[in-house]
Amino acid sequence: MTCTAPMPPVSFFALKICGALPISPVLRSTTMQSREYAKLTNAFPLSATRPEPLGPVRTIAVTGGKGGVGKTNISANLAVALADMGKRTLLLDADLGLANLDVVLGLAPKYTLADLIAGRCTLDEVIIEGPGGVLVVPAASGRRHMAELAPAQHIGLVNVFSELERDLDVMVIDTAAGITDSVLTFCQAAQDTVVVVCDEPASITDAYALIKVLSRERGVDRLQIIANMVRDPNEGRLLYDKLSRVCEKFLGDVSLNYLGHVPQDDWLRLSVQRQQPVIKAYPASPSAQAIAEIARRTSRWQAPTVPRGNVEFFVERIIQRGVAA
């Protein structure tokens, strides 16, 4: 299957997945397409004072089996911590139907991914700067059609950023909760998947279910685990061991790695109320220090050797199977 149309910003998704998304009527003009695509490729101009990264962008999907485990807070603070370390970081809100990263970070975006897909704006108009210089891609909340995108459209949202990889070091994807197609697709597209779990029976059960589906249906068999909202490091390690034993018993081919713990403290609660990342509002707090350590550990991961993990292969497989919106 061959794509031959020019490249506008919105139909860029469609071009990446050969027509999975329709081209907006306002972008049908070839002249406009060329102009808007030029704007897209300049969305992240290289700074004269910052070095070009040596390798491809590292893509990290942060997910959790159930809602309420603190996944979005982990995503936001991890992205800010990485930016504080000098990493050029982009944070994508992939909870497409019930997005709230902008609320967590105290941002007021003019446009969201829903506007981009509808053809009302370009990619660089969606991206806003968050705390610590993190580049944030906000999604919409209360948009049912965004929560019901086809798998090819999900992967298109990730793959569109491959054109910007020279100018980014890390892309953090905050997925929705559960085991929907959206969650599974974003996790499969990422090079690294982080599962956030807390010490509750429902959280552990749902985390196991998510890991099982990712492994058996999507081939994701290497995952990082964060124990969130625990009392101390020992409780975090015990929680990880509990989940690891279950996975080892029933999913022998899955490899789990303990990335660390984040304690529940008053500083974290206050930062949520202030709509600020705890790593900025209270950098000396136990929760902020724990997240900073997790960021340091991720920065020591082996550098990726391919542009986007298995994204290009996955897109090709979608096309071959004829998946359409």
UniProtKB/TrEMBL annotation:
Q: Which domain of life is it from?
A: Bacteria
The record's Gene3D superfamilies line, in alphabetical order, gives: P-loop containing nucleotide triphosphate hydrolases
Query: Would the keyword Oxidoreductase be found if you checked this record's keyword annotation?
Result: no
- UniProt keyword Hydrolase present: no
Q: Which GO terms describe its cellular component?
A: cytoplasmic side of plasma membrane; cytosol
| Gene Ontology BP annotations | negative regulation of cell division
Q: Which UniProt keywords apply?
A: ATP-binding, Nucleotide-binding
Name of one Pfam family that matches? CbiA
Segments forming domain CobQ/CobB/MinD/ParA nucleotide binding: 60-278
Citing just one GO molecular function, the answer is: ATP binding
Q: Which PANTHER family match?
A: CELLULOSE BIOSYNTHESIS PROTEIN BCSQ-RELATED (PTHR43384:SF4), SEPTUM SITE-DETERMINING PROTEIN MIND HOMOLOG, CHLOROPLASTIC-RELATED (PTHR43384)
Q: What is this protein called?
A: Cobyrinic acid a,c-diamide synthase
Gene source species: Xanthomonas prunicola
